[in-house]
From TrEMBL:
<feature type="region of interest" description="Disordered">
    <location>
        <begin position="1"/>
        <end position="20"/>
    </location>
</feature>
<dbReference type="InterPro" id="IPR016066">
    <property type="entry name" value="A-D-PHexomutase_CS"/>
</dbReference>
<dbReference type="InterPro" id="IPR016055">
    <property type="entry name" value="A-D-PHexomutase_a/b/a-I/II/III"/>
</dbReference>
<dbReference type="InterPro" id="IPR005844">
    <property type="entry name" value="A-D-PHexomutase_a/b/a-I"/>
</dbReference>
<dbReference type="GO" id="GO:0004614">
    <property type="term" value="F:phosphoglucomutase activity"/>
</dbReference>
<keyword id="KW-0479">Metal-binding</keyword>
<feature type="domain" description="Alpha-D-phosphohexomutase alpha/beta/alpha">
    <location>
        <begin position="294"/>
        <end position="406"/>
    </location>
</feature>
<keyword id="KW-0413">Isomerase</keyword>
<dbReference type="GO" id="GO:0005975">
    <property type="term" value="P:carbohydrate metabolic process"/>
</dbReference>
<feature type="domain" description="Alpha-D-phosphohexomutase alpha/beta/alpha">
    <location>
        <begin position="13"/>
        <end position="152"/>
    </location>
</feature>
<dbReference type="InterPro" id="IPR036900">
    <property type="entry name" value="A-D-PHexomutase_C_sf"/>
</dbReference>
<dbReference type="InterPro" id="IPR045244">
    <property type="entry name" value="PGM"/>
</dbReference>
<dbReference type="Pfam" id="PF02879">
    <property type="entry name" value="PGM_PMM_II"/>
</dbReference>
<dbReference type="InterPro" id="IPR005845">
    <property type="entry name" value="A-D-PHexomutase_a/b/a-II"/>
</dbReference>
<protein>
    <recommendedName>
        <fullName>phosphoglucomutase (alpha-D-glucose-1,6-bisphosphate-dependent)</fullName>
        <ecNumber>5.4.2.2</ecNumber>
    </recommendedName>
</protein>
<feature type="domain" description="Alpha-D-phosphohexomutase alpha/beta/alpha">
    <location>
        <begin position="184"/>
        <end position="285"/>
    </location>
</feature>
<dbReference type="Pfam" id="PF02880">
    <property type="entry name" value="PGM_PMM_III"/>
</dbReference>
Length: 542
């Protein structure tokens, strides 16, 4: 029976860079989930009888929320829900299922790389029919609706068995529990030469993958472990756990340190990779060499034609503004356009849909292509493996040859986490206030050439996104960017992005911290980070 339940609006349900993210306990307030889900449905038109895709990264609270959404989808008139077995779908796998089955949209339960557990984070986001995150027009409408909502619709029905593949019904709505991995693995087989990768691995090339006790475990076990023949032992932390084993499922040098150490050991494997909570991020580490996400994007773009799915070449490359300019040089050489977008995968959606870009990437460990509308951690790993299988060179050799061709963009991001929101806002406001006065002045021996607040006009729909980060450009091509994170759940996180370009005939073998030292000093001098935040060191350097 369909019920309309009265509710009281919450005023804090504004979706951030990637959906609504809060502490689990916050989500456990009365009707908090129901309000947000109803606000999503209320903001959409024409889904009557249509298909919704539903899945999540398996974190704490995932299973309960799946049941809530199933009942509400039935009450609101969806015809069918495709739900990943056990409530599991990685974010790129969900994107693929939406596209493959021409669903109306999807609800993904994830707080990505944030920790999980009763005292940690949860998240909900809505993806549209192209498989990508809802654009701002939709998330703005959802937010507006959350502030006024006074009732939600649900049905009285027992829990659905989401662990057994097959079909059941709620109030006439079909619920199909699908294999979480099968469609995704099939898609990967169309893009990459699995035979060539299997031969590489069979020849003794050692691959390891850290699933960080998060969603990619089952995907990596099937694809890397079985289909590519690396064996189950090649997948570390392959079982998804509701609290990710107490770890922070963020594949960076801090949280994936075990993997990094494995690759830096004298007897290291040839290739190591990791993915995050929901499977859309990637970390690539070769034997004795870390590949920054910005470099990885550039190297993948330069070599993508070696994989069957990209043999026809790329239409264009897109990167987020704080991502280094390494990919720009590849685009230039290939004679294809390079698009610079604000942070957030949703900004790539229009470019991909319009066939303007084929490969996209972000400094925040996200890379992907037009095969889905999310970034895709395992996809990046498989493209690297396909390239390695064709070139039969080490990761280090590929990186060195790349820099010798295009030059090297030394790059790092410094994060100051959990700082006081007012202090962070004050820092940014002060910076914005002095932008006009900066060009021409010298700091830490560097001359400022340009200073602005990045604004983006979408070339497809003309929408404008302002205040996307402060860019300070120096003479010689170095750059510092200041931005506040849009994905945190407590306090503010200041991100400082540092980049220095060294041409192909320059010194390509420096240590990154040493290459960036003058920029670190300049960033402090320009923004007064210590003065505003009380911090003298970043919490995370990636
Ligand atoms: C998520 C988004 C990315 C974004 C990243 C960092 O992973 O999907 O598109 O780059 O968060 O965002 P932030 O606002 O925290 O820098
Ligand atoms: Zn993620």
């Amino acid at each position: 029976m369909i019920e309309t339940v009265p509710t009281t609006a919450y005023q804090d349900q504004k979706p951030g860079t990637s959906g609504l993210r809060k502490k689990v306990r916050h989500f456990q307030q009365p009707n908090y989930i129901e309000n947000f889900v109803q606000a999503i449905f209320d903001s959409l038109d024409g889904f009557e009888g249509q298909t919704l895709v539903l899945g999540g990264d398996g974190r704490y609270h995932n299973r309960e929320v799946i049941q809530v959404v199933l009942r509400m989808a039935a009450a609101n008139g969806f015809g069918r829900v495709l739900v990943g077995q056990g409530g599991i779908l990685s974010t790129p796998a969900a994107s693929n299922v939406i596209r493959k089955y021409q669903a109306f949209g999807g609800i993904i339960l994830s707080a990505s790389h944030n920790p999980g557990g009763p005292d940690e984070d949860f998240g909900i986001k809505y993806n549209i029919g192209n498989g990508g995150p809802a654009p701002e027009s939709v998330t703005d409408a959802i937010y507006a609706r959350t502030q006024a909502i006074d009732a939600y619709k649900t049905v009285t029905a027992p829990d659905i068995d989401i662990d057994t593949i097959g079909e059941s019904f709620i109030e006439g709505m079909s619920v199909q529990v699908i294999d979480s991995v099968a469609d995704y693995a099939a898609l990967m087989e169309t893009l990459f030469d699995f035979g060539a990768i299997r031969d590489l691995i069979g020849s003794g090339f050692r691959v390891v993958f850290d699933a960080m006790s998060a969603v990619t475990g089952p995907y990596a076990l099937e694809i890397i472990g079985r289909r590519l023949g690396a064996g189950e032992a090649a997948v570390f932390n392959g079982v998804p756990l509701p609290d990710f084993g107490g770890h922070h499922p963020d594949p960076n040098l801090v949280h994936a340190k075990d993997l990094y150490d494995t690759l830096m050991a004298p007897d290291a494997p040839d290739f190591g990779a990791a993915s995050d909570g929901d499977g859309d991020r990637n970390l690539i580490v070769g034997k004795h060499i870390f590949i920054t996400p910005s470099d990885s994007l550039a190297m993948l773009a330069a070599n993508a034609h070696l994989a069957p799915g990209y043999a026809a070449g790329l239409k264009g490359i897109a990167r987020s503004m704080p991502t280094s300019g390494a990919a720009d040089r590849v685009a230039e050489k290939l004679g294809i356009p390079l698009y610079e977008t604000p942070t957030g995968w949703k900004f790539f959606g229009n470019l991909l849909d319009a066939g303007m870009a084929t490969i996209c990437g972000e400094e925040s460990a996200g890379t992907g292509s037009d095969h889905v509308r999310e970034k895709d951690g395992l996809w990046a790993v498989l493209l690297w493996l396909n390239i390695l299988a064709v070139r039969r060179e080490s990761v280090a050799a590929i990186a060195e040859a790349h820099w010798a061709t295009y030059g090297r963009n030394y790059y790092a991001r410094h994060d100051y986490e959990g700082i006081d929101t007012a202090a962070a806002d004050a820092l940014m406001a002060e910076l914005r206030g002095k932008l006009a006065s900066l060009p021409g002045s010298a700091v830490a021996g560097l001359t400022i050439a340009s200073a602005d607040d990045f604004a983006y006009t979408d070339p497809v729909d003309g929408s404008v996104s302002a205040k996307q980060g402060i860019r300070i450009g120096f003479e010689g091509g170095s750059r510092v960017v200041f931005r506040l994170s849009g994905t945190g759940t407590s306090g503010a996180t200041l991100r400082v992005y540092l980049e220095r370009y060294e041409p192909a005939d320059g010194d390509l073998a420096q240590d990154t911290p040493q290459a960036l030292a003058p920029l670190i000093t300049a960033a402090e001098a320009i923004a007064g980070i210590a003065r505003h935040s009380g911090r003298s060191e970043p919490d995370v350097v990636t």
